[in-house]
């Protein structure tokens, strides 16, 4: 089925790309595995359960409703939700040279409807998920990623706990703590791992440029108001270095860190808590970009040019897979990518917004980036891969004993990254630790933990149904 411009992902970047492509006069298909548009940023209750004051719970809600209304009501746009893209393959018969494999239906249910799309152009807007560095006890129930806690608060109005610690690095900790507090939890501490000096140095160069990002200043003011009203303490140079409990989290150990994130001896203190939300960074979802053949840079993001074109003809990328930059940068990149995919000239305003918020993204990296001292938090028995229950000591010992120099062989011998999540949670951590052991600079993308030819697990029976005579060709 020819799909015109195919947008994969219905978050901010994907929605902006779809609208720009529609404005360029093209037919558009938007695909997302979720049941609702909005992505992780605009996660919300379905219409039948939506709150009376939904707009108060989301920044930029009016912008979301404009984008959603356009893609859901425009006759030139097909919105396919609950549809997982599980593969992208070369196809000479496709206008773009690529075929996109879909599975539509309830997650994990049998009888998925399989479909193949042959788009003229593809916009990848697959987003990112939290990266949480391991620490003793992080496998306990009650340890959440920041994104999961926020999703429960926004999407289900569920609080993750009564006494909650929010920890990690970056400005994302502020909306996580705010969402937890607004859902009814008491945030007893927000711990930012980086020292105040680094944060100030990262944000302070040419401070007048920040005036161009006035929306971020307004957003920050809102978070600070919640922190003041709820009396939420914010501490820098502090990290959760252990979680304690028998059947679930009962307490966490907070410790002061030096500039490289090593624990300062004697500063550890135990804090009662029944939940901890931890997010140190984000990992872009690169499976489909790698499957399409896109070049990935040394920082592990998709390489794009000024028009958000990747190194593969007819394939564009926008949002967090090109660099972690937040919703405003994602919206700008999406608008540029959508216009380019439609063969139109990008909106000059979108180009200006991209420059402004790319500057903000660079400041975030400088102020809140992960430092290498976190490895000193790990004990011999600290789980690195939770799915396969691989401890730090076992990982290092196996790598040393086998003298393996390739990631694939090291994964097979240690089992790290081979569990049900396929390395999505532990992959970057496993790579860094194994690189330390092997002495290599970087594992090639061809064997990295982001390379998954089948991007979303599929039932064998559903795969066998592809090509059946009674299969719906659309």
Descriptive account of the structure:
It is a single chain. It contains 13 helices and 20 strands. The protein is α/β, with parallel strands linked by helices and 474 residues long. It has 3 domains: 188 residues, FAD/NAD(P)-binding domain (3-Layer(bba) Sandwich), CATH 3.50.50.60; 147 residues, FAD/NAD(P)-binding domain, CATH 3.50.50.60; 61 residues. The strands form 6 sheets. It has a 5-stranded parallel beta sheet. A 5-stranded parallel beta sheet has the order 9-16-10-11-12. Strand 10, helix 4 and strand 11 form a beta-alpha-beta unit. The longest helix is centred in the C-terminal third of the chain and has 21 residues. The N and C termini lie close together (5 Å). The model has no long low-confidence stretch (mean pLDDT 90).
The CATH architecture of the largest domain is 3-Layer(bba) Sandwich
**CATH class category label of the largest domain:** Alpha Beta
Largest sheet: 5 strands, parallel
CA-based shape: globular
Labels describing this entry:
FAD/NAD(P)-binding domain; alpha/beta; 13 helices; single chain; 20 strands; 3 domains; five-stranded parallel beta sheet
Quick summary of this structure?
This protein has 13 helices and 20 strands.
Topology:
Elements: E1 5-8, H1 12-23, E2 28-32, H2 61-73, E3 77-81, E4 83-90, E5 98-104, E6 113-117, E7 121-124, E8 128-131, E9 143-145, H3 146-156, E10 163-168, H4 173-182, E11 186-192, H5 196-203, H6 214-230, E12 234-235, E13 238-244, E14 251-256, E15 269-272, E16 275-279, E17 281-284, H7 287-292, E18 315-317, H8 327-341, H9 348-368, E19 383-385, E20 390-391, H10 392-402, H11 407-414, H12 427-438, H13 460-464
Parallel strand pairs: 1-2, 1-7, 2-3, 7-18, 9-16, 10-11, 10-16, 11-12
Antiparallel strand pairs: 4-5, 5-6, 8-17, 13-14, 14-15, 19-20
Helix pairs in contact: 1-2, 1-8, 3-4, 4-6, 5-9, 8-9, 10-12
């Amino acid at each position: 089925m020819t799909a015109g411009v195919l947008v994969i992902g219905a978050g901010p970047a994907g929605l902006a790309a779809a609208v720009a492509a529609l404005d360029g006069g093209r037919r558009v298909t938007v695909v997302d595995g979720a049941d609702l548009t909005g992505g992780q940023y605009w996660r919300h209750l379905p219409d039948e359960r939506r709150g009376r004051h939904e707009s108060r719970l989301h920044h930029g809600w009016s912008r979301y409703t404009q984008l959603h209304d356009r893609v859901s009501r425009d006759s030139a746009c097909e919105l396919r939700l609950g549809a997982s893209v599980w593969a992208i393959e070369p196809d000479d018969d496709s206008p773009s040279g690529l075929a996109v494999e879909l599975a539509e239906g309830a997650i994990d249910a049998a009888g998925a409807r399989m479909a193949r799309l042959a788009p003229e152009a593809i916009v990848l807007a697959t987003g990112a998920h939290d990266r949480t560095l391991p620490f003793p006890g992080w496998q306990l129930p009650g340890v959440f990623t920041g994104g999961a806690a926020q999703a429960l608060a926004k999407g289900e109005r569920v609080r993750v706990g009564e006494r909650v610690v929010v920890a990690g690095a970056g400005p994302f900790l502020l909306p996580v703590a705010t969402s937890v507090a607004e859902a009814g939890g008491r945030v007893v501490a927000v711990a930012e791992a980086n020292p105040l000096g680094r944060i100030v140095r990262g944000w302070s160069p040419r401070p007048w440029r920040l005036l161009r990002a006035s929306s971020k200043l307004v957003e920050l003011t809102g978070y600070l108001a919640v922190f003041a009203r709820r009396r939420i303490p914010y501490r820098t140079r502090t990290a959760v270095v252990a979680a304690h409990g028998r059947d679930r989290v009962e307490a966490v150990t907070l410790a002061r860190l030096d500039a490289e994130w090593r624990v300062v001896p004697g500063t550890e203190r135990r804090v009662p808590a029944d939940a901890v939300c931890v997010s140190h960074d984000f990992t872009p979802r690169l499976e489909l970009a790698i499957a399409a053949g896109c070049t990935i840079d040394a920082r592990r993001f998709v390489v794009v040019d000024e028009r958000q074109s990747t190194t593969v003809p007819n394939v564009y990328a926008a949002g967090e897979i090109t660099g972690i930059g937040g919703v405003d940068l994602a919206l700008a990149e999406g608008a540029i990518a959508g216009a380019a995919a439609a063969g139109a000239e990008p909106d000059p305003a979108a180009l200006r917004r991209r420059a402004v918020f790319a500057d903000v993204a660079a400041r975030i990296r400088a102020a809140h980036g992960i430092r290498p001292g976190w490895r000193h938090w790990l004990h011999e028995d600290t789980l690195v891969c939770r799915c396969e229950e691989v401890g730090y000591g076992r990982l290092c010992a196996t790598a040393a004993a086998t003298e393996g120099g390739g990631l694939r062989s090291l994964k097979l011998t240690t089992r790290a990254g081979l569990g049900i999540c396929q390395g999505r949670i532990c992959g970057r951590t496993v790579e860094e630790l194994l690189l330390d052991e092997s002495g290599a600079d970087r594992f090639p993308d061809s064997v990295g933990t982001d390379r998954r030819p089948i991007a979303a697990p599929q039932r064998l029976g559903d795969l066998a149904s592809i090509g059946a005579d009674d299969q719906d060709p659309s």
